[in-house]
Protein backbone atom coordinates (compact mmCIF):
# COMPACT_ATOMS: atom_id res chain seq x y z
CA UNK A 1 0.00 0.00 0.00
CA UNK A 2 1.64 3.23 -1.11
CA UNK A 3 1.63 6.31 1.11
CA UNK A 4 0.05 9.17 -0.77
CA UNK A 5 0.79 11.96 1.72
CA UNK A 6 3.57 12.69 4.22
CA UNK A 7 3.17 11.13 7.65
CA UNK A 8 4.75 12.68 10.72
CA UNK A 9 5.31 9.90 13.27
CA UNK A 10 3.42 10.57 16.49
CA UNK A 11 1.11 13.14 14.92
CA UNK A 12 -2.23 12.22 13.37
CA UNK A 13 -3.35 14.59 10.57
CA UNK A 14 -6.71 16.29 10.95
CA UNK A 15 -7.49 14.89 14.38
CA UNK A 16 -7.04 16.42 17.80
CA UNK A 17 -5.28 14.46 20.49
CA UNK A 18 -7.74 12.60 22.71
CA UNK A 19 -10.57 12.70 20.19
CA UNK A 20 -12.83 9.66 20.56
CA UNK A 21 -12.04 6.89 18.10
CA UNK A 22 -15.69 5.92 17.65
CA UNK A 23 -15.00 2.17 17.70
CA UNK A 24 -12.78 -0.50 19.23
CA UNK A 25 -9.09 0.18 18.62
CA UNK A 26 -8.41 -3.40 17.53
CA UNK A 27 -10.38 -5.98 15.56
CA UNK A 28 -9.93 -9.72 16.18
CA UNK A 29 -10.76 -12.51 13.73
CA UNK A 30 -9.83 -16.19 13.70
CA UNK A 31 -9.54 -18.59 10.77
CA UNK A 32 -7.94 -22.04 10.72
CA UNK A 33 -6.20 -21.48 14.03
CA UNK A 34 -4.77 -18.08 13.05
CA UNK A 35 -5.88 -15.09 15.14
CA UNK A 36 -5.57 -11.77 13.33
CA UNK A 37 -5.32 -8.76 15.65
CA UNK A 38 -5.73 -5.64 13.53
CA UNK A 39 -4.92 -2.17 14.84
CA UNK A 40 -7.95 -0.25 13.62
CA UNK A 41 -7.57 3.44 14.39
CA UNK A 42 -6.58 4.71 10.92
CA UNK A 43 -7.58 8.32 11.62
CA UNK A 44 -4.83 8.48 14.29
CA UNK A 45 -2.33 6.39 12.28
CA UNK A 46 -2.84 3.66 14.91
CA UNK A 47 -1.05 5.70 17.58
CA UNK A 48 -0.23 3.80 20.76
CA UNK A 49 -2.61 5.56 23.09
CA UNK A 50 -3.29 4.04 26.50
CA UNK A 51 -6.52 2.62 25.07
CA UNK A 52 -4.76 1.09 22.07
CA UNK A 53 -2.00 -0.45 24.18
CA UNK A 54 -4.49 -1.94 26.63
CA UNK A 55 -6.52 -3.35 23.74
CA UNK A 56 -3.48 -4.97 22.10
CA UNK A 57 -2.30 -6.49 25.39
CA UNK A 58 -5.78 -7.85 26.14
CA UNK A 59 -6.12 -9.30 22.64
CA UNK A 60 -2.76 -11.06 22.99
CA UNK A 61 -3.87 -12.47 26.33
CA UNK A 62 -7.07 -13.80 24.80
CA UNK A 63 -5.15 -15.38 21.93
CA UNK A 64 -2.74 -17.05 24.32
CA UNK A 65 -5.58 -18.41 26.44
CA UNK A 66 -7.59 -19.77 23.49
CA UNK A 67 -6.68 -23.39 22.69
CA UNK A 68 -8.11 -22.94 19.18
CA UNK A 69 -5.45 -20.34 18.35
CA UNK A 70 -2.13 -21.61 17.00
CA UNK A 71 -0.56 -18.41 15.59
CA UNK A 72 -1.18 -14.67 15.98
CA UNK A 73 -0.86 -12.12 13.18
CA UNK A 74 -0.58 -8.47 14.21
CA UNK A 75 -1.73 -6.23 11.35
CA UNK A 76 -3.07 -2.70 10.92
CA UNK A 77 -5.49 -0.67 8.82
CA UNK A 78 -5.03 2.71 7.18
CA UNK A 79 -2.05 4.66 5.85
CA UNK A 80 0.34 3.61 8.64
CA UNK A 81 1.07 0.41 10.49
CA UNK A 82 1.71 2.43 13.64
CA UNK A 83 3.11 5.95 14.05
CA UNK A 84 4.24 5.47 17.65
CA UNK A 85 3.08 7.37 20.71
CA UNK A 86 0.69 10.33 20.67
CA UNK A 87 3.06 13.31 20.89
CA UNK A 88 0.21 15.83 20.95
CA UNK A 89 -1.33 14.15 23.99
CA UNK A 90 2.07 13.93 25.68
CA UNK A 91 2.79 17.61 25.03
CA UNK A 92 -0.56 18.54 26.59
CA UNK A 93 0.45 16.85 29.84
CA UNK A 94 3.24 19.40 30.29
CA UNK A 95 0.52 21.52 31.95
CA UNK A 96 0.15 18.98 34.77
CA UNK A 97 1.40 19.99 38.21
CA UNK A 98 4.37 17.61 37.87
CA UNK A 99 5.18 18.69 34.33
CA UNK A 100 3.77 15.45 32.97
CA UNK A 101 6.10 13.02 34.73
CA UNK A 102 3.32 10.76 36.07
CA UNK A 103 1.55 10.64 32.71
CA UNK A 104 4.78 9.92 30.85
CA UNK A 105 5.67 7.19 33.34
CA UNK A 106 2.27 5.54 32.88
CA UNK A 107 2.58 5.69 29.09
CA UNK A 108 5.96 3.98 28.96
CA UNK A 109 5.09 1.48 31.69
CA UNK A 110 1.97 0.43 29.76
CA UNK A 111 3.97 0.29 26.55
CA UNK A 112 6.58 -2.00 28.10
CA UNK A 113 3.84 -4.25 29.45
CA UNK A 114 2.26 -4.48 25.99
CA UNK A 115 5.59 -5.34 24.34
CA UNK A 116 6.24 -8.02 26.98
CA UNK A 117 2.76 -9.42 26.29
CA UNK A 118 4.05 -10.34 22.82
CA UNK A 119 6.94 -12.28 24.33
CA UNK A 120 4.74 -13.82 27.04
CA UNK A 121 2.08 -14.95 24.55
CA UNK A 122 2.61 -18.72 24.07
CA UNK A 123 1.64 -18.41 20.39
CA UNK A 124 4.09 -17.23 17.71
CA UNK A 125 3.31 -13.60 16.83
CA UNK A 126 3.90 -12.36 13.26
CA UNK A 127 3.78 -8.67 12.35
CA UNK A 128 2.17 -7.93 8.97
CA UNK A 129 3.52 -4.50 8.03
CA UNK A 130 1.98 -2.69 5.10
CA UNK A 131 3.22 0.86 5.65
CA UNK A 132 5.13 3.10 8.05
CA UNK A 133 6.15 1.69 11.44
CA UNK A 134 7.76 4.56 13.33
CA UNK A 135 9.21 4.99 16.82
CA UNK A 136 7.15 2.77 19.14
CA UNK A 137 5.51 1.38 15.99
CA UNK A 138 8.92 0.14 14.88
CA UNK A 139 9.37 -1.18 18.42
CA UNK A 140 6.15 -3.14 17.98
CA UNK A 141 7.52 -4.82 14.83
CA UNK A 142 10.88 -5.56 16.47
CA UNK A 143 9.13 -7.08 19.50
CA UNK A 144 7.17 -9.58 17.38
CA UNK A 145 8.61 -13.05 16.86
CA UNK A 146 8.60 -12.61 13.07
CA UNK A 147 7.59 -9.97 10.55
CA UNK A 148 6.52 -9.87 6.91
CA UNK A 149 6.63 -6.50 5.16
CA UNK A 150 5.18 -5.06 1.99
CA UNK A 151 7.72 -3.44 -0.31
CA UNK A 152 5.94 -0.16 0.50
CA UNK A 153 6.66 -0.42 4.25
CA UNK A 154 9.06 1.92 6.02
CA UNK A 155 10.67 1.63 9.45
CA UNK A 156 12.33 4.12 11.74
CA UNK A 157 13.14 5.02 15.33
CA UNK A 158 12.30 8.63 14.60
CA UNK A 159 12.12 10.06 18.12
CA UNK A 160 15.59 11.60 18.09
CA UNK A 161 14.37 14.03 15.41
CA UNK A 162 11.82 15.36 17.93
CA UNK A 163 14.25 15.52 20.86
CA UNK A 164 13.16 12.17 22.29
CA UNK A 165 15.68 9.34 21.89
CA UNK A 166 13.91 6.03 21.22
CA UNK A 167 15.32 4.30 24.30
CA UNK A 168 12.42 1.87 24.72
CA UNK A 169 12.25 0.96 21.01
CA UNK A 170 15.99 0.30 21.30
CA UNK A 171 15.29 -2.64 23.63
CA UNK A 172 13.76 -5.03 21.06
CA UNK A 173 15.55 -3.36 18.13
CA UNK A 174 18.97 -4.06 19.65
CA UNK A 175 17.95 -7.67 20.16
CA UNK A 176 16.58 -8.09 16.64
CA UNK A 177 19.29 -6.49 14.47
CA UNK A 178 23.04 -5.98 14.52
CA UNK A 179 24.31 -3.26 16.83
CA UNK A 180 25.65 -0.82 14.24
CA UNK A 181 22.47 -0.98 12.18
CA UNK A 182 20.36 -0.39 15.30
CA UNK A 183 22.46 2.57 16.37
CA UNK A 184 22.33 4.11 12.89
CA UNK A 185 18.54 4.00 13.04
CA UNK A 186 18.49 5.37 16.59
CA UNK A 187 21.03 8.15 15.99
CA UNK A 188 19.69 9.41 12.64
CA UNK A 189 15.93 8.92 13.07
CA UNK A 190 15.79 8.13 9.35
CA UNK A 191 13.16 5.84 7.88
CA UNK A 192 14.57 2.77 6.12
CA UNK A 193 12.82 0.87 3.36
CA UNK A 194 11.61 -2.71 3.59
CA UNK A 195 14.59 -4.14 1.70
CA UNK A 196 17.01 -2.58 4.19
CA UNK A 197 14.85 -3.80 7.09
CA UNK A 198 15.12 -7.34 5.73
CA UNK A 199 18.88 -7.07 5.21
CA UNK A 200 19.46 -6.19 8.88
CA UNK A 201 17.02 -8.79 10.21
CA UNK A 202 14.19 -6.51 11.32
CA UNK A 203 11.75 -8.38 9.05
CA UNK A 204 11.84 -11.92 7.70
CA UNK A 205 10.70 -11.26 4.16
CA UNK A 206 9.51 -8.53 1.82
CA UNK A 207 6.73 -9.09 -0.72
CA UNK A 208 4.72 -6.92 -3.12
CA UNK A 209 2.04 -4.99 -1.26
CA UNK A 210 -0.72 -6.87 -3.08
CA UNK A 211 0.66 -10.17 -1.79
CA UNK A 212 1.28 -9.14 1.83
CA UNK A 213 -1.67 -10.76 3.59
CA UNK A 214 -1.43 -13.95 1.53
CA UNK A 215 2.28 -14.28 2.26
CA UNK A 216 1.80 -13.60 5.97
CA UNK A 217 -1.07 -16.06 6.26
CA UNK A 218 0.92 -18.71 4.37
CA UNK A 219 3.75 -18.37 6.90
CA UNK A 220 1.25 -18.48 9.76
CA UNK A 221 -0.44 -21.57 8.30
CA UNK A 222 2.91 -23.32 7.97
CA UNK A 223 3.64 -22.70 11.66
CA UNK A 224 0.09 -23.59 12.70
CA UNK A 225 0.71 -27.17 11.57
CA UNK A 226 3.13 -27.68 14.46
CA UNK A 227 2.19 -28.76 17.99
CA UNK A 228 0.94 -25.69 19.89
CA UNK A 229 2.38 -27.15 23.09
CA UNK A 230 5.81 -27.55 21.54
CA UNK A 231 5.68 -24.07 20.00
CA UNK A 232 4.86 -22.59 23.40
CA UNK A 233 7.67 -24.48 25.12
CA UNK A 234 10.12 -23.45 22.43
CA UNK A 235 9.14 -19.80 22.34
CA UNK A 236 9.46 -19.44 26.10
CA UNK A 237 12.83 -21.20 26.13
CA UNK A 238 14.13 -19.06 23.26
CA UNK A 239 13.53 -15.81 25.12
CA UNK A 240 14.68 -17.20 28.46
CA UNK A 241 18.03 -18.43 27.16
CA UNK A 242 18.68 -15.21 25.23
CA UNK A 243 19.48 -13.41 28.49
CA UNK A 244 21.79 -16.10 29.87
CA UNK A 245 25.47 -16.84 29.55
CA UNK A 246 26.40 -19.53 27.03
CA UNK A 247 26.91 -22.16 29.74
CA UNK A 248 23.65 -21.25 31.49
CA UNK A 249 21.79 -21.24 28.18
CA UNK A 250 22.90 -24.78 27.33
CA UNK A 251 21.97 -26.01 30.79
CA UNK A 252 18.54 -24.43 30.58
CA UNK A 253 17.89 -25.53 26.99
CA UNK A 254 18.89 -29.10 27.78
CA UNK A 255 16.28 -29.22 30.52
CA UNK A 256 13.65 -27.87 28.16
CA UNK A 257 14.53 -30.54 25.58
CA UNK A 258 14.02 -33.24 28.21
CA UNK A 259 10.70 -31.71 29.28
CA UNK A 260 9.67 -31.56 25.62
CA UNK A 261 10.50 -35.25 25.12
CA UNK A 262 8.37 -36.17 28.11
CA UNK A 263 5.22 -34.60 26.62
CA UNK A 264 2.67 -36.63 24.67
CA UNK A 265 3.28 -34.44 21.61
CA UNK A 266 7.02 -35.00 21.90
CA UNK A 267 6.43 -38.75 21.92
CA UNK A 268 3.90 -38.55 19.08
CA UNK A 269 6.12 -36.42 16.87
CA UNK A 270 9.00 -38.87 17.00
CA UNK A 271 6.68 -41.84 16.55
CA UNK A 272 5.11 -40.19 13.49
CA UNK A 273 8.55 -39.43 12.04
CA UNK A 274 9.67 -43.05 12.46
CA UNK A 275 6.40 -44.37 11.01
CA UNK A 276 6.53 -41.84 8.15
CA UNK A 277 3.02 -40.54 8.85
CA UNK A 278 1.60 -37.11 9.74
CA UNK A 279 1.65 -36.42 13.51
CA UNK A 280 -1.60 -36.19 15.48
CA UNK A 281 -1.07 -33.46 18.04
CA UNK A 282 -3.07 -33.49 21.28
CA UNK A 283 -1.51 -30.47 22.98
CA UNK A 284 -0.30 -32.60 25.90
Task: Report what the structure shows.
The protein has 284 residues and is of the alpha/beta class. Helix 9 runs antiparallel to helix 10. The radius of gyration is 20 Å and the shape is globular. Strand 2, helix 1 and strand 3 form a beta-alpha-beta unit. The relative contact order is 0.12. It is 45% helix and 15% strand. The strands form two sheets. The chain has a six-stranded mixed beta sheet with strand order 1-2-3-5-7-10, with helices on both faces. The N terminus is likely disordered.
What do we call the CATH homologous superfamily of the largest domain? 2-enoyl-CoA Hydratase, Chain A, domain 1
- Overall spatial form: globular
Give the number of DSSP strands.
10
What is the number of helical segments per DSSP (H or I, 4+ residues)?
A: 11
Structural class: alpha/beta
Side-by-side strand order of the widest sheet: 1-2-3-5-7-10
Query: So, CATH architecture of the largest domain?
Result: Alpha-Beta Complex
Helices and strands, in order, run as EEHEEHHEEHEEHHEHEHHHH
Helix content: 40-55%
How large is the radius of gyration? 20 Å
Kindly report the CATH topology of the largest domain.
Answer: 2-enoyl-CoA Hydratase, Chain A, domain 1
Into which percentage range does the β-strand content fall? 5-15%
CATH class annotation of the largest domain:
Alpha Beta
**Uncertain segments:** 1-6, 14-21
> Biggest sheet: strands, sense, closure?
6 strands, mixed
